[in-house]
Write a structure and sequence with these properties.
Number of strands: 11
Mean pLDDT: 97
Number of helices: 9
Bound molecules: cytidine-5'-monophosphate
Strand content: 25-35%
């Protein structure tokens, strides 16, 4: 039996633009993604044989093939022909159904770990292609860091890193269905689009305030009124507490703010904790 412990980092969307609707039911996106050190911890036990099992410390999460970590392992074995008996344990810290790619990140961590454990030694490109079949956010999670994601999310360009900063993350106590939110875009004229080119230039220049100012997610425009009010409230608190910029991540409802100094970020987190249960202080990785 081989034992391996691997981290699975959460992602945040510094920008999210929906470019067009595709014939296959998906949408072409344009997103600047950033991984952060808020992470799940995975333990893999592998040995000769076959069969994949998953257990997590959250009883409501699926432990069968619906768990993206199990789906990723199956896809990896199919693609490489290198089967293993695999048991995956996941300690969840990334909020679930939050727009932070928690499940996709677990799947990506499994792909990277199996690439090492099985001796398959696939190139990053091949691992990303396997991830694509598991979910739209998995390719980015395999790559990690700061990256531009286009197409369904599988066309990736590594970017200069977001300058060092403190990030306050707040997940309100409701969930948003991803397919439903994409559905709400239909026939909707978006009032605002993120300045992706400006974001890329700010990253190139190592300009943290410039990057923070350009953060925007078009899904903020199609939320239900009550959800929109909560997202706006969190953004207002973050900005009032000194955030350089604030934005919703993915299909929400998580909102985050970038700070240049730790004490301000800590105060902002304390202020948000008065109203919200899931508040985290994190950093880019
Ligand atoms: O690929 P994944 O299973 O993560 O996607 C979940 C849902 O999100 C899809 O069924 C689709 O409704 C929507 N989606 C989309 N365009 C994308 C990614 C996801 O329409 N690029």
């Amino acid at each position: 039996m081989t034992h391996l412990e691997v981290p699975a980092y959460a992602k945040l969307n510094l920008t999210l633009d929906v470019v067009s609707r595709r014939d296959d039911g998906y949408h072409d996106l344009c997103m600047v993604m950033q991984s952060v050190d808020l992470r799940d911890e995975l333990t893999l036990e592998a040995g000769p044989g076959e069969g994949v099992s998953v257990s997590t410390d959250l009883a409501f999460l699926p432990s069968d093939g619906r768990n993206l970590a199990a789906a990723a392992a199956q896809r990896f074995f199919e693609a490489t022909g290198k089967n293993l008996a695999l048991s995956i344990g996941i300690q969840k810290h990334i909020p679930v159904c939050a727009g932070m790619a928690g499940g996709s990140s677990d799947a990506a961590a499994v792909l990277r770990a199996l690439n090492q454990l099985s001796g398959a030694d696939l190139a990053m490109e091949e691992l990303i292609r396997i991830g694509e079949a598991v979910g739209s956010d998995v390719p980015y999670c395999v790559l990690g860091g700061t990256a531009l994601a286009e197409g369904r999310g599988e066309r990736l360009t590594p970017l200069p890193p977001l300058p060092p900063c403190e990030i306050v993350v707040c997940k309100p106590g409701f969930s948003i269905s991803t397919p439903e939110l994409f559905g709400r875009l239909k026939g909707k004229k978006l009032r605002r689009r993120p300045d992706t080119q400006g974001m890329l230039a700010a990253l190139e220049a190592g300009d943290l305030p410039g990057a923070a100012r350009r953060m925007y997610n078009v899904f903020e425009d199609v939320l239900q009124p009550r959800q929109a009010r909560t997202v706006e409230e969190i953004k207002n608190i973050l900005i009032a507490q000194g955030a350089l910029g604030a934005c919703m991540s993915g299909t929400g409802p998580t909102v985050f703010g970038l700070f240049s100094a730790r004490p301000q970020a800590e105060e902002a987190a304390e202020r948000l904790q008065e109203e919200f249960r899931e508040v985290f202080l994190t950093r880019p990785v």
